[in-house]
Write a structure and sequence with these properties.
34% of the residues lie in helices and 25% in strands. The protein has six helices and seven strands.
Protein backbone atom coordinates (compact mmCIF):
# COMPACT_ATOMS: atom_id res chain seq x y z
CA UNK A 1 0.00 0.00 0.00
CA UNK A 2 1.39 3.41 -1.01
CA UNK A 3 1.79 5.98 1.71
CA UNK A 4 -0.68 8.82 2.03
CA UNK A 5 0.03 12.49 1.44
CA UNK A 6 -2.46 15.04 2.76
CA UNK A 7 -2.13 17.89 0.27
CA UNK A 8 -3.10 20.60 2.72
CA UNK A 9 -1.49 22.97 5.15
CA UNK A 10 -4.66 23.10 7.27
CA UNK A 11 -4.05 22.09 10.88
CA UNK A 12 -7.77 21.26 11.18
CA UNK A 13 -7.62 18.77 8.30
CA UNK A 14 -4.54 17.15 9.84
CA UNK A 15 -6.26 16.88 13.22
CA UNK A 16 -9.36 15.32 11.67
CA UNK A 17 -7.35 12.78 9.68
CA UNK A 18 -5.28 11.90 12.78
CA UNK A 19 -8.53 11.00 14.57
CA UNK A 20 -8.91 8.10 12.14
CA UNK A 21 -5.52 6.68 13.08
CA UNK A 22 -4.29 6.91 9.50
CA UNK A 23 -0.56 7.46 8.92
CA UNK A 24 0.12 10.34 6.53
CA UNK A 25 2.53 13.09 5.65
CA UNK A 26 1.52 16.61 4.69
CA UNK A 27 2.43 18.76 1.75
CA UNK A 28 0.91 22.18 1.15
CA UNK A 29 0.47 22.79 -2.59
CA UNK A 30 0.77 26.35 -3.78
CA UNK A 31 -1.91 26.80 -6.43
CA UNK A 32 -3.95 29.74 -7.68
CA UNK A 33 -7.18 29.69 -5.68
CA UNK A 34 -8.92 32.46 -7.59
CA UNK A 35 -12.58 31.96 -8.38
CA UNK A 36 -13.28 31.54 -12.08
CA UNK A 37 -15.91 33.70 -13.77
CA UNK A 38 -19.44 32.32 -13.17
CA UNK A 39 -18.02 29.40 -11.14
CA UNK A 40 -20.41 28.00 -8.52
CA UNK A 41 -19.23 27.29 -4.99
CA UNK A 42 -19.63 23.55 -5.64
CA UNK A 43 -17.56 23.67 -8.83
CA UNK A 44 -14.98 25.88 -7.11
CA UNK A 45 -14.22 23.50 -4.22
CA UNK A 46 -14.27 20.46 -6.52
CA UNK A 47 -11.81 22.09 -8.91
CA UNK A 48 -9.43 23.26 -6.19
CA UNK A 49 -9.37 19.88 -4.43
CA UNK A 50 -8.50 18.12 -7.70
CA UNK A 51 -5.90 20.75 -8.68
CA UNK A 52 -4.22 20.43 -5.26
CA UNK A 53 -4.15 16.63 -5.60
CA UNK A 54 -2.76 16.77 -9.15
CA UNK A 55 -0.07 19.24 -8.07
CA UNK A 56 1.01 17.02 -5.17
CA UNK A 57 0.93 13.89 -7.34
CA UNK A 58 3.56 15.43 -9.63
CA UNK A 59 5.94 15.57 -6.67
CA UNK A 60 4.86 12.28 -5.07
CA UNK A 61 3.92 10.01 -8.01
CA UNK A 62 4.10 6.78 -5.99
CA UNK A 63 1.81 7.98 -3.20
CA UNK A 64 -1.91 8.25 -2.57
CA UNK A 65 -2.83 11.94 -2.51
CA UNK A 66 -5.72 13.32 -0.46
CA UNK A 67 -6.68 16.94 -1.07
CA UNK A 68 -9.63 19.07 0.00
CA UNK A 69 -10.97 22.57 -0.23
CA UNK A 70 -13.77 24.09 1.83
CA UNK A 71 -15.80 27.25 1.37
CA UNK A 72 -18.87 28.91 2.78
CA UNK A 73 -21.67 29.97 0.46
CA UNK A 74 -24.50 32.36 1.26
CA UNK A 75 -27.07 33.05 -1.45
CA UNK A 76 -24.65 31.58 -4.00
CA UNK A 77 -21.81 33.90 -2.98
CA UNK A 78 -18.59 32.52 -1.53
CA UNK A 79 -17.65 33.98 1.84
CA UNK A 80 -13.94 33.83 2.57
CA UNK A 81 -11.76 34.65 5.53
CA UNK A 82 -12.15 38.07 7.18
CA UNK A 83 -9.67 40.69 6.00
CA UNK A 84 -10.28 42.85 9.09
CA UNK A 85 -12.50 43.26 12.12
CA UNK A 86 -14.90 45.36 10.06
CA UNK A 87 -15.06 42.65 7.40
CA UNK A 88 -15.73 39.97 10.06
CA UNK A 89 -18.64 42.04 11.39
CA UNK A 90 -20.02 42.36 7.84
CA UNK A 91 -19.78 38.57 7.41
CA UNK A 92 -21.55 37.90 10.72
CA UNK A 93 -24.28 40.43 9.90
CA UNK A 94 -24.87 38.58 6.61
CA UNK A 95 -24.89 35.13 8.31
CA UNK A 96 -26.89 36.29 11.35
CA UNK A 97 -30.20 34.48 11.75
CA UNK A 98 -29.75 32.67 8.44
CA UNK A 99 -28.76 29.33 7.04
CA UNK A 100 -25.67 29.03 4.85
CA UNK A 101 -23.86 26.19 3.12
CA UNK A 102 -20.44 24.78 3.89
CA UNK A 103 -19.08 22.91 0.88
CA UNK A 104 -15.98 20.74 0.73
CA UNK A 105 -14.47 19.22 -2.34
CA UNK A 106 -12.43 16.10 -1.58
CA UNK A 107 -10.15 14.38 -4.09
CA UNK A 108 -8.16 11.17 -3.71
CA UNK A 109 -5.70 10.54 -6.51
CA UNK A 110 -3.01 8.05 -7.46
CA UNK A 111 -1.02 7.72 -10.67
CA UNK A 112 -3.83 5.58 -12.11
CA UNK A 113 -6.99 6.51 -10.18
CA UNK A 114 -9.00 9.58 -9.21
CA UNK A 115 -12.08 9.75 -7.02
CA UNK A 116 -13.70 12.96 -5.85
CA UNK A 117 -16.88 14.30 -4.31
CA UNK A 118 -18.41 17.47 -2.92
CA UNK A 119 -20.09 17.44 0.49
CA UNK A 120 -22.65 20.09 1.43
CA UNK A 121 -23.69 20.90 5.01
CA UNK A 122 -26.38 23.41 5.92
CA UNK A 123 -25.51 25.56 8.95
CA UNK A 124 -27.90 27.84 10.84
CA UNK A 125 -26.16 30.78 12.49
CA UNK A 126 -28.06 32.56 15.27
CA UNK A 127 -28.71 36.28 15.09
CA UNK A 128 -25.70 37.98 16.69
CA UNK A 129 -25.79 41.21 18.65
CA UNK A 130 -23.05 43.80 18.35
CA UNK A 131 -21.77 42.81 21.82
CA UNK A 132 -21.62 39.12 20.82
CA UNK A 133 -19.67 40.02 17.67
CA UNK A 134 -17.30 42.22 19.68
CA UNK A 135 -16.78 39.48 22.26
CA UNK A 136 -16.19 36.77 19.65
CA UNK A 137 -13.73 38.90 17.67
CA UNK A 138 -11.73 39.58 20.85
CA UNK A 139 -11.05 35.83 21.25
CA UNK A 140 -8.92 35.83 18.08
CA UNK A 141 -10.60 32.64 16.86
CA UNK A 142 -12.29 34.09 13.74
CA UNK A 143 -9.18 35.67 12.21
CA UNK A 144 -8.09 32.90 9.80
CA UNK A 145 -11.40 31.06 9.35
CA UNK A 146 -13.69 31.03 6.33
CA UNK A 147 -16.91 32.72 7.37
CA UNK A 148 -15.05 34.19 10.34
CA UNK A 149 -16.01 31.34 12.65
CA UNK A 150 -14.87 27.93 13.88
CA UNK A 151 -17.70 25.50 14.68
CA UNK A 152 -15.27 23.34 16.68
CA UNK A 153 -14.44 26.31 18.89
CA UNK A 154 -16.25 29.10 20.68
CA UNK A 155 -18.58 29.71 17.71
CA UNK A 156 -20.39 26.44 18.48
CA UNK A 157 -22.55 28.42 20.90
CA UNK A 158 -23.85 30.51 17.96
CA UNK A 159 -24.91 27.52 15.83
CA UNK A 160 -28.24 26.00 16.89
CA UNK A 161 -28.40 23.43 14.11
CA UNK A 162 -26.63 21.84 11.20
CA UNK A 163 -27.88 19.45 8.54
CA UNK A 164 -25.14 17.20 7.23
CA UNK A 165 -21.57 16.42 8.16
CA UNK A 166 -20.12 18.18 11.19
CA UNK A 167 -16.55 17.29 10.16
CA UNK A 168 -17.26 18.90 6.78
CA UNK A 169 -17.84 22.22 8.57
CA UNK A 170 -14.54 21.77 10.41
CA UNK A 171 -12.76 21.22 7.08
CA UNK A 172 -12.71 17.53 6.05
CA UNK A 173 -15.81 15.33 5.78
CA UNK A 174 -14.44 12.14 7.32
CA UNK A 175 -17.15 9.69 6.26
CA UNK A 176 -16.79 10.61 2.59
CA UNK A 177 -13.01 10.81 2.83
CA UNK A 178 -12.82 7.25 4.15
CA UNK A 179 -15.04 6.04 1.28
CA UNK A 180 -12.71 7.67 -1.26
CA UNK A 181 -9.60 6.23 0.40
CA UNK A 182 -11.18 2.77 0.36
CA UNK A 183 -11.96 3.19 -3.36
CA UNK A 184 -8.23 3.50 -4.14
CA UNK A 185 -7.44 0.69 -1.68
CA UNK A 186 -5.59 3.06 0.66
CA UNK A 187 -7.75 1.70 3.50
CA UNK A 188 -9.34 -1.67 4.17
Amino acid sequence: MASLILASGSPRRSELLQRLGIAFETYSPNINESLLENESAQDYVARLACEKAAHALQLFPDHVILAADTCISLDGNIIGKPRSKTHAFEIWQALSGRQHEVLSGVCVMTATQKYDCVVNTQVLFQKLSYDEMQSYWSTGEPIDKAGAYAIQGIAAKYIPEIHGSYTNVVGLPLHETVKLLKAVKALN
